[in-house]
Amino acid sequence: MIYTVTLNPSIDYIVEVEDLRLGGLNRMKRDLKLPGGKGINVSRVLNQLEVQNKAIGFLGGFTGRYIEEWLRKESISSDFLFVSDDTRINIKLKHGDETEINGAGPVIRDTEAEALLQKMAVLNAGDVVILSGSVPPSLGADFYDKLISVCKESGAEFVIDTTGSALKKALPHQPLLVKPNHHELAELFGVTIQTKEEIITYGRKLLEAGAKHVLVSMAGEGALFITEQGVYHANAPKGTVKNSVGAGDSMIAGFVGTFSLTGDLMEAFRSGVASGSATAFSDDLADREFIEQLRPLINISEV
Ligand SMILES: Nc1ncnc2c1ncn2[C@@H]1O[C@H](COP(=O)(O)OP(=O)(O)O)[C@@H](O)[C@H]1O
Ligand SMILES: O=P(O)(O)OC[C@H]1O[C@](O)(COP(=O)(O)O)[C@@H](O)[C@@H]1O
């Protein structure tokens, strides 16, 4: 079974304005409220790919109920812990460019945190747990360490998609996959990255530190896949970007979903890129039909 863990879900409030006037009155041209948070996005795309999975994490308040209802309508299996504070609302402002303003997240009490860890007792060897996104500050920076310990004790594999020291500390525990984008990779090492060669150099460092597979996404430039066997590049198909929020999460869903069904790393890579691009070219996350349409357009070559 695949589990996604979203410690900090969100309603993504996507707001489009013609011309952003800072300090002035702006009127929305279009707006859209979507359930968000990285693990939840992964679950929604896994469902599109008909890969069985369960979404776990914290939800709270009216925003939490909105997300729960959406997931129920999409028949996404979930087991969230309800907390007393409200789930955050993240603003995604489209004004020719994309500007994001993400909330810090609700207060999670110690008893609520403990109850979530108890939920993880369902894990078995062979399960894959996808740990995605930021950690609400009140949970403490070491909460991912606790979740990783639970995964290791049960024999489950884990994937981690987060940033900074939480990602660094996870590497020696041999995550099945890490997927920084090229900006996050540079930030992780405190460097600026200009070339594909530099991405490979720093991506390899994640492998050396313990990750089993490394995917570095590069938005419209596609992605690099770095493994013990070699380094591979995939192009991204061309298209009109509608909303790239969730493209990275879709890529993880495509990769892990296809890998769990086929065990084929190259097909998983192809599926990851197709899923990411299908989301970038959609208002909401990718649907199955669009992913299948893009899949043959992805060319993979060894670097
Ligand atoms: N402008 C784009 N054109 C085509 N594909 C895209 C575009 N933006 C994202 N994608 C696809 O989604 C994947 C992940 O996107 P990226 O923006 O790098 O991740 P993140 O959302 O984590 O920052 C890319 O590797 C690519 O396949
Ligand atoms: O937990 P964080 O780091 O604040 O990220 C949460 C945000 O990331 C998203 O999951 C999108 O992530 P990606 O664009 O990286 O795939 C949004 O749905 C959500 O608003």
From TrEMBL:
Gene3D superfamilies: 3.40.1190.20. The gene is lacC. It comes from the Bacteria. Belongs to the carbohydrate kinase PfkB family. LacC subfamily. This is Tagatose-6-phosphate kinase. InterPro entries: 1-PFruKinase, Carboh/pur_kinase_PfkB_CS, PfkB_dom, Ribokinase-like, Tagatose/fructose_Pkinase. PROSITE patterns: PFKB_KINASES_2. Coiled coil: none annotated. It catalyses: D-tagatofuranose 6-phosphate + ATP = D-tagatofuranose 1,6-bisphosphate + ADP + H(+); beta-D-fructose 1-phosphate + ATP = beta-D-fructose 1,6-bisphosphate + ADP + H(+). Residues 11-280 form the Carbohydrate kinase PfkB domain. Pathway: Carbohydrate metabolism; D-tagatose 6-phosphate degradation; D-glyceraldehyde 3-phosphate and glycerone phosphate from D-tagatose 6-phosphate: step 1/2. Its EC number is 2.7.1.144. Keywords: ATP-binding, Kinase, Lactose metabolism, Nucleotide-binding, Transferase. GO terms for molecular function: tagatose-6-phosphate kinase activity. Catalyzes the ATP-dependent phosphorylation of fructose-l-phosphate to fructose-l,6-bisphosphate.
